[in-house]
Structures are given as structure tokens and as C-alpha cells.
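Suppose you are handed a protein chain with no further information: no name, no annotation, nothing but its sequence. What can you learn? This example shows the usual starting point.
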Amino acid sequence: MKIALASDHAGFELKEKVKAFLEKEGYKLFDFGCFSSDSVDYPLYGVKVARAVLSQEADRGILICGTGLGMSMVANRFPGIRAALCHEPFSARMSRLHNDANILVLGGRIIGDVLAFEVVKVFLETPFEGGRHARRVEQIDALTKEA
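A reasonable first move is to predict its three-dimensional structure. Written in C-alpha cells, the prediction is:
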């Protein structure tokens, strides 16, 4: 599985830890930045991951900013992106099972690295359940194309 990864300065430290975790797990990564803790504008990085997922350059994405809120707002502006802000494994699991989330968003100032690794693992390993949930995801996609 190919994963697109990006953060702003507030998420940089956690991004680097998640990146090392994913490399150890054998995932192919595209790191779209940022590359230091120097202040940057999060929208520029959120857009890169959203576009990589939409173009199928990456199978899934992970975005990290201070709270996760800004990156969520950016990513979810794109029709076809279903970005889920998760800080514990249950939400990560349900975002995949019921919503077919394709981007995980984490708050680097909210979640510790050990818990983040668990959330990432659950998000990447949980399949979409389909069934009645597929109809709802299709509705999301159809309705956001009209907006």
C-alpha cells in the first residue's frame, strides 16, 4: 500500500515518527513535507496529500497538524476525499468500516506517538465494510460534486 504523508510545523515531529513507523512496517511512502519545524502554512501541505489520493498516486493519506482540525478542513474540501480526524483506534476503525475514509488526520499536539502508531495501524489495516455503507459513501460523493 502506498501512503501520502504530510504535516505542518506543529505536526512535523509526529510526522517523522509516523514515517519511521510506516517504513518499518513496509509501506511505500510519499513524504510531501514539511521538512522541519519552521513555521509553514498547513493548506499547502494538505492539498498535496488530497491530490495524491485523488490521482491514485497514493492509496491512502495521513495528514498531521497541531490539532488536526485545519488539515481536516483542507482535505475535506476535495470531492472524493473522506478525511477522518482520529485520536483513538475506535474512530479510526469506524472511519474505515463505515465511511471508507481515505485520509487519516492526526493532531500532533493532541496525541502521543505510541497511540498514534496504533491509530495509524488500525486505519491502514481495516477494510471498508461496504453493504449499506457503500450507498451512503456514494451519496456523500454525489452530493459534494453538486456543491
